[in-house]
Amino acid sequence: xxxxxxxxxxxxxxxxxxxxxxxxxxxxxxxxxxxxxxxxxxxxxxxxxxxxxxxxxxxxxxxxxxxxxxxxxxxxxxxxxxxxxxxxxxxxxxxxxxxxxxxxxxxxxxxxxxxxxxxxxxxxxxxxxxxxxxxxxxxxxxxxxxxxxxxxxxxxxxxxxxxxxxxxxxxxxxxxxxxxxxxxxxxxxxxxxxxxxxxxxxxxxxxxxxxxxxxxxxxxxxxxxxxxxxxxxxxxxxxxxxxxxxxxxxxxxxxxxxxxxxxxxxxxxxxxxxxxxxxxxxxxxxxxxxxxxxxxxxxxxxxxxxxxxxxxxxxxxxxxxxxxxxxxxxxxxxxxxxxxxxxxxxxxxxxxxxxxxxxxxxxxxx
Amino acid sequence: xxxxxxxxxxxxxxxxxxxxxxxxxxxxxxxxxxxxxxxxxxxxxxxxxxxxxxxxxxxxxxxxxxxxxxxxxxxxxxxxxxxxxxxxxxxxxxxxxxxxxxxxxxxxxxxxxxxxxxxxxxxxxxxxxxxxxxxxxxxxxxxxxxxxxxxxxxxxxxxxxxxxxxxxxxxxxxxxxxxxxxxxxxxxxxxxxxxxxxxxxxxxxxxxxxxxxxxxxxxxxxxxxxxxxxxxxxxxxxxxxxxxxxxxxxxxxxxxxxxxxxxxxxxxxxxxxxxxxxxxxxxxxx
Amino acid sequence: xxxxxxxxxxxxxxxxxxxxxxxxxxxxxxxxxxxxxxxxxxxxxxxxxxxxxxxxxxxxxxxxxxxxxxxxxxxxxxxxxxxxxxxxxxxxxxxxxxxxxxxxxxxxxxxxxxxxxxxxxxxxxxxxxxxxxxxxxxxxxxxxxxxxxxxxxxxxxxxxxxxxxxxxxxxxxxxxxxxxxxxxxxxxxxxxxxxxxxxxxxxxxxxxxxxxxxxxxxxxxxxxxxxxxxxxxxxxxxxxxxxxxxxxxxxxxxxxxxxxxxxxxxxxxxxxxxxxxxxxxxxxxxxxxxxx
Lengths: 366, 286, 292
Prior knowledge:
Chain C: Its main location: membrane. Chain A is of the alpha+beta class and 366 residues long. Helices cover 23% and strands 34% of the residues of chain A.
């Protein structure tokens, strides 16, 4: 069991910088997710941790050991690949035993550990099957058992659930988390699925444009995104641009003009934020689920009259795309029973929100 | 979604600033060994071609390495010997007859095999490809016996048939590759738009499997032009093809004008490769 | 019902396209082989005229005479040796073809690989004579380098036959191995290495088993070509090498004992078919483990 220290790692392919000066510390026993859109460099980073790719600069430490120059077969990591990468010519048992035989363990020891690993993923009865005789979920569990059987110091999961259908994916998420808790193994999950990352991880590292944009707990990255990229990538978001200078201060509140949004009176939307105003903040975010339906007290602050452009009903919630009377669009999400009857496109609606939900985003970064 | 900002991070300097760039040991001993062995194998493959070139322009009967001087005497010998002209004539006539017949037969067969679904289809496919694997000496002797019985021996027909049997599987194989990558839905779409079966075949199928047909044609030409195992059995003194003439020259007298004619075959191979590359890409053939 | 008739009509169109080829191959592949088999049982008189009577006499001679048993044995040996050498050499060649990252280099490898297939066998064989002859290129080179004092006798031997065979047939072994190597997901090798297996071990436990079908289909082609060619052994080995194709050629073209040549041919054909079927069976069994 050991943590991972990624020290100033960069990777350049020709003229293209896939990853730029990543500094990251994954703690011992932690479930850590690397989250980002495709092409963000997360696979590059994973391949470098695994040893399939050399970093252009920087060092990678596993525990106290500098593994930067070690080939993959000397790193002692367990890897679960996206499409499982089970050896098609070997049985489930032989697949799981593969890494143990390489380590020249005695036959009885191999058998004991394979049985143990298969029991962990509840596949003991499938030992003599071949990969093609298994369902997607079962293959996935064999892949996990194979990676865990060698008792690795770190478990790397490369988009392990992306090939499963939605329901199975939920089940496997729970199972992954259970296995990780039970074994206490340091785990790095690479994924582009924010929900997966949010629900499974102790901490998340968000990668974008070859850089580590933010590292934090799921709560932190969702509620306090470090920059626009993170805000935009995780969940849906309404973004307001302001001049960055509050026109009014009320106690601890700052009031701004959101220049992109115009009310029916032809004036800019007035935004009130609970955050301490600063001269540099130019952008604020507002999560759609924080917007409420109603008149909000007719203060003219943090509230708008709008026309519904589009309604989509998802069962547990209703999503509205609305246009302000002057200009600007907002997305609002309301839990299902809010509307007795579903609103229609073209209906008028009043929206309001709390000053505490208007979150300033730092201007630096992207 | 509100407006998203997908600019590259501070677009100015794409290179990492940190100066500590490692020079990695990319070449392990193992990699070096494998590459050495592999390159050795490729050199071994190409050595004979290289030697042919050396011989063709060598002033001596046996070439020397490194070559002492360049000479065209074997080419002169080639043109002054009427035997070669006659052999070339026979070979070309054969090509003109064998190629279209084989390509039409093979294309029709490969297309039908790609579309028909029945038990035993793979057996028929193997049967059609079998001339590739059948010992040539056995095929030669079997055809010799049959043609003798039919009274076809010593005719050009026997050579035509022999060459067709040899070239046919090559056409079937290359066209099959094109057919298998052709989506049958395209033909269904064409027919649903009112085109008949023949119109569909001409306007949709044929253009889409053309690369395979071109490659098949090239292989058919090359196989027919270089064929010797069957020809040797079924050809007569009046119908001697170039490869048979070469065989006789090597077998009986060592005539260095073979050196010069060999260059012709290499030229044919080069042209064939260029056409195949243009049509289907060298990496996709076979 | 209307639907079935459309399908039927479509199918009859395809059968119409297939029929000419089937007829052609029946007439010039099936019929001659049947005739050959029948001929192999015909008796001959002392002047080698074919008699209307049938017997097993030719086969008896093939399988009892020491000369022909020896010929069968050495034919089998040469074909197997060629197959083994081709397969061994094919792996590094296929590896380079699949692994090289430069498109230009890959194209070059393909050119080197395909060019022998596009050159007549007489030409390639002729080149080997030029290389291996007493006053040939290789002897010349070795003498110039003072590695030998007098020319080695390399031509007119079984070794020369095997060398020429290997060069002629190598592409048939490389291409299918390269194809199956290219189909292996890189992730499988990565998985193997992440589990602690080095590159050599990964080759033997992952790459080799998964390229087995390609290797076997290449081996089948190489074996049948090596067992059945007579041009190459005739020119670089000489007429007297104990090889079945040479014996058949001699019986047919020089001795004019067609029934005996036919019996030898049938023997060779059965030998090749048995080996090819065996390799195909192994390959099928193996692939059945990998797929449904």
